[in-house]
Design brief:
CATH class of the largest domain: Alpha Beta
Shape: globular
Number of domains: 5
Number of strands: 21
Number of helices: 16
Oligomer: single chain
Strand content: 15-25%
Largest sheet: 5 strands, antiparallel
Helix content: 25-40%
């Protein structure tokens, strides 16, 4: 192999032509974060080994140690970590995709703008392109700049090549590019999306409903003024933003818009008409509960309480998370921030006990002891909680080197869920930076008290009737061929196997979703159901799918256990075409989302399922 020197900006498209002389005997590796070789077409970091690798940086021993590493494939030799993102092409060419330090995180995905640029340059007619991340408030979005092709064609073609989460929110057609005095692209001088005539003609809202909805639309999409002809998904909307819009509509209008209506009526005008025809949302009625010694638990908390007793002090329902901290650390401030969070969230001051009637109750303490621990290793951190002792939350610091630390936090699932962990980390960062947080209108106990009253109402009865009908008749028991006998009691001991789909397969999955009016979740749910049917030979499949369970905006910042399980039943019969089956799954999933408030544990009780300790109940 020969390695050619290259300039990032002047030779931005592909490393094809030499700039300078080739270095015989050089080796190029494209590796992932674990130093494993990436297959052709998959992006990774570029490393250089073999002849031509320098001894290091002059008078910079720390940088030399960081960048010049032992070659894992040739013992005794070294390789250089370039910091460049690249991939092998089928013809043996290495394509440069940008810098690894240029990665951005958007909606939980790590994205390299250079990889999006590379996809843009593959579109016929595109002579030049650039992609940058722009942050407005708390939202970060990609903005694409193109020359030589119209933005509508580019948007359509790019959708065939990239998954939805990598699609830029804005496309701007360029005639002249800003450059630096040295002749390189001046990315900081690229125009903001608001200055580009890239949107369809604006038609102002006409009614009070349209005006109120336009304001919510703008809060969620952060795309500028919303007109009544604007299309939610063409302006950067996706399923998570659709859910956020539903919760804001519930708070602003007091109505619960079914999620499927966002897909069916994606323009502002159509959605406003839907809102005017709906009944009041039950979640708008959640109010602070009267003060008392103990409060009822929610259905989800009751499930956790029982499961923890069955696990007998295990850690299967602990929810640990880790944050890497760099720079000077104020330990006293760290403890004070956590005490502020404990004062802010009653869930972090809550313990659980069995009441006089034998049912579990929650007790909220005014003050609980807290101080972070100092540990030598992260492995010593996770250990069982005692539900009768608050706080069911702990934090610890592990010093790595110099001013680098790991901050470990752990909460029991009975007071927390996945959204809560994210909320805790976000609010910790805000408070540590001396920023203020908006006060909470309600706490988790208020939701638990509301749920007791909700169970007596008509909406609850309708949701119960829906689930009983869905799970009527003989319930299937999945019988998969396995290497070993099923144990009498299931264990949480195990591992996670992760993989990444290549770009072509991922783009194909998104195309299936787009062509059938589905989300990627629905496509994968249908595919998974089909796989289970093929393996088991059964044509009646129930898949348990977790859902966040926060359908009202006031519940979004509350720390607590809201997550519910939806038992989604499908019939993947072998005589069905996959598109037909996918449409069935889409309908079933949308209906399940609309009936998500009915607690899974109540459903199990109503169905009278005989419990098998080796399986989930349904």
């Amino acid at each position: 192999a020969a390695f050619y020197l290259y300039d990032h900006e002047k030779d931005r498209k592909r490393i094809r032509l030499p700039i300078g002389k080739p270095v015989p005997g050089a080796r190029l590796y494209i590796l992932d974060s674990e130093k494993a070789v990436q297959p052709a077409g998959v992006a990774g970091e570029l490393y250089i080994a073999g002849a031509g690798v320098a001894r290091g940086y002059l008078n910079r021993p720390e940088l030399t140690k960081e960048r010049f590493l032992d070659d894992p494939f040739y013992p005794g030799e070294r390789m250089y970590q370039t910091g460049d993102l690249a991939r092998w092409l089928p013809d043996g060419t290495v394509e440069w995709l940008g810098r690894t330090d240029g990665q951005v995180k958007i909606r939980g995905y790590r994205i390299e703008p250079g990889e999006v640029e590379a996809a843009l340059r593959q579109i016929d007619g595109v002579r030049e392109s650039a992609v940058i991340a722009r942050t407005e408030g708390e939202e970060t979005e990609l903005c694409a700049y193109i020359e030589g092709q119209d933005q509508q064609t580019v948007r359509t073609e790019l959708g065939k090549r990239l998954p939805a989460y990598m699609m830029p929110s804005s496309f701007i057609e360029m005639k002249e590019w800003p450059v630096t005095p040295s002749g390189k692209l001046d990315r900081k001088a690229l125009p903001a999306p608001a200055g580009a005539a890239e949107r369809r003609a604006y038609t102002a809202p006409r009614t009070i409903t349209e005006m109120k909805l336009a304001k919510l639309w703008e809060e969620v999409l952060k795309y500028g003024p919303a007109g009544i002809r604007d299309h939610f998904f063409e302006q950067g909307g996706h399923s998570l933003k659709a859910t956020a819009l539903v919760s804001r509509i519930a708070k602003a209008f007091g109505v619960q818009v079914p999620l499927k209506e966002i897909f069916a009526k994606p323009t502002l005008e159509e959605l406003a008409a839907v809102i005017q025809e709906l009944d009041e949302s039950p979640h708008a009625a959640i109010e602070p509960a009267e003060k008392q010694d103990t409060y009822p638990v929610s259905s989800a908390q009751k499930r956790m309480y029982v499961l923890q007793q069955l696990e007998d002090g295990g850690v299967g329902y602990n929810m640990p998370a880790a944050l890497k901290l760099t720079g000077p650390l104020d330990r006293a401030r760290l403890d004070e921030v956590f005490r502020q969070l404990i004062r802010r969230h009653e869930s972090l001051r809550t313990s659980f006990e069995t009441g006089a009637d034998g049912e579990p109750v929650q007790r909220i303490h005014d003050v609980v002891p807290f101080q972070h621990m100092e540990l030598a290793a992260a492995e010593d951190f996770v250990r069982p909680f005692r539900l009768q002792e608050a706080p069911l939350f702990r934090a610890a610091l592990v010093k790595e080197a110099g001013e680098s630390h790991l901050l470990l936090v752990d909460m029991h699932h009975i007071i927390s869920d996945g959204v809560s962990v994210g909320t805790l980390i976000h609010e910790f960062s805000e408070l540590y930076a001396n920023r203020t947080l908006a006060p909470l209108r309600i706490q988790y106990k208020d939701y638990a008290v509301w749920q007791q009253a909700f169970k007596q109402g008509g909406v609850y009865k309708r949701q119960e009737a829906y689930w009983l009908k869905q799970l009527d008749g003989e319930l299937p028991v999945l019988d998969l061929p396995a290497d070993n006998a099923r144990p009498a009691v299931r264990s949480f001991a195990g591992d996670t196997v992760s993989c990444t789909l290549d770009a072509e397969t991922t783009a194909g999955l998104y195309k299936i979703a787009r062509d059938n009016g589905c989300t990627l979740y629905m496509v994968l749910l249908a595919a998974y159901s089909t796989l289970l049917a093929r393996l088991s030979g059964q044509e009646d499949i129930i898949i348990g799918s977790p859902i966040a369970g926060r359908p009202h905006k006031d519940l979004e910042p509350v720390i607590g256990m809201f997550v519910n399980t939806l038992a989604i039943r499908s019939q993947p019969a072998e005589n069905k075409r996959f598109p037909d089956f996918l449409r069935e799954v889409r309908q079933t999933a949308l209906e399940a989302f609309e009936h998500q408030d009915y607690p899974f544990e109540e459903l199990v009780d109503r169905l009278g399922v005989v419990r098998d300790m080796s399986r989930n109940p349904l």
